[in-house]
Amino acid sequence: MTTQELVDQIEKKKSFLCVGLDVDLEKIPAHLLEAEDPIFEFNKAIIDATHDLAVAYKPNIAFFETYGVKGWESLKKTIDYLNDNYPDIFTIADAKRGDIGNTATRYAKAFFEDLAFDSITVAPYMGSDSVEPFLEFEDKHAILLALTSNKGAFDFQTNEIDGEALYKKVLKTSSTYQNNDRLMYVVGATKAEYFTEIRKIIPESFLLVPGVGAQGGDLHAVCKNGMNDQVGLLINSSRGIIYAGNGTDFASKAREKALALQQDMQVILEAR
Amino acid sequence: MTTQELVDQIEKKKSFLCVGLDVDLEKIPAHLLEAEDPIFEFNKAIIDATHDLAVAYKPNIAFFETYGVKGWESLKKTIDYLNDNYPDIFTIADAKRGDIGNTATRYAKAFFEDLAFDSITVAPYMGSDSVEPFLEFEDKHAILLALTSNKGAFDFQTNEIDGEALYKKVLKTSSTYQNNDRLMYVVGATKAEYFTEIRKIIPESFLLVPGVGAQGGDLHAVCKNGMNDQVGLLINSSRGIIYAGNGTDFASKAREKALALQQDMQVILEAR
């Protein structure tokens, strides 16, 4: 998917919501456990109930991988279901992969070709030749970790490197990579005050923003500081939506939560 | 596996060789492509031919993941084969995972429980709460990326952060993590001169060293600067061993290359 197609979808749906699929067998409604593939059935119901409110879905790969071959099958079914039924939706493999050249190309092929995701989250530590292989695929995107919303982000990301925070160095250095127009960035919403600084370095790029809701980030503060001419934001909510209910009506409960977020986003978009 | 069991195996085999399984369908001998699972058949033959010379095997997860569900099945068969037939051998999932709390625990369960690896490579960018979940598993190890052997390592790892190179900050900070005695580190062999500095920070830890051979690192220089009382090194070779031959005798060709490395290691161990 091109960035312009993503922007068009945002304007059409009046939403920049991404729904995170962090599906845990211990948390999904009990009646689904009788299905042959409970994880896929859960995802399918959530997607069907929210597809007109969300512009992106983000399966968290760890939650599939933890179930081995069976989990990988559930992942394949989930992404195929999205691509077959809702081809306009932007798909994100939240995999946080990061390895060099040859190996990075293998990961890129796994997620861009075998699974046909539009994008994948990527870790920056190994530098250019661990990121650029993901940027060689037309209409595909690497979403690079910049500033995350967890406690450990302060271990390295905010420390000064060559006179500025490491996450800023990551933004600047990666902006020189080949095909950097296919880069997006992960920026945690718990640090809304950082968005102004970040926009000075990467005014054009889309930002994937976790941490609104469950992790305490404020949607309005993020939008005020982080939005650009093309919106430029994908706000992710995972648990707050998918585990809104735990009964047979879990999908409609999820829709309620997604709708509330979409309506907030519509107000923000219309006030531009 | 405990660190002591790894050390015992090193002393017994007079080897600290790790064989990297980066198995590419385009590179394996043509006759294997007729097998039901060519990747597993290739791995099985390489393992059988080298198990007395190597103390560790390191499947590169990208090379399995790129084949989707089928690749994940080959990975499962490979690790099961190792654990069933050579339980004394140390196994490394070269996955370079890195995500926060809950998600990291899922990755840890995928590799330590479902697949029963002894260890996994982990990326440090997200800090403590992305690494510590991997350290909660008894007799399991997280091998943290410190200084890698690729060009992109100079993008961030060697830059000064708080007055010292980022990779040194990673070594120091991670040494304060809970259960840090279960940490090992990836240190590339192309930078043998760094090993002296690294040993000042982490004298006790095992180092997984890629880059000997194909990437140009020098075994003797690495050992001189990096070895400790418990040896403390696992030297990885992937392509140099597994693609030594391309005919029906590929496994014996691989053995020849592994034997040459093991004999070099034996000389170094006996000269201590």
Model description:
2 copies of one chain form a homodimer. Chain A has an 8-stranded parallel β-barrel, surrounded by 5 helices. In chain A, strands 6-7 form a two-stranded antiparallel sheet. In chain A, β8 (183-187), α9 and β9 (207-209) form a beta-alpha-beta unit. In chain A, α2 (38-50) runs parallel beside α4 and α2 (38-50) runs parallel beside α12. Chain A has 272 residues and is α/β, with parallel strands linked by helices. Chain A is built from 12 helices and 10 strands. The first copy, chain A, has helices spanning 3-13, 38-50, 62-65, 68-85, 101-114, 128-131, 153-156, 166-174, 195-201, 219-226, 239-242, 250-270; strands at residues 17-21, 56-59, 90-97, 119-122, 141-147, 160-161, 164-165, 183-187, 207-209, 233-237. The longest helix of chain A has 21 residues, at 250-270. Chain A has a single domain (3-270), classed as Aldolase class I (TIM Barrel), CATH 3.20.20.70. The interface between A and B is large, with 56 and 56 residues.
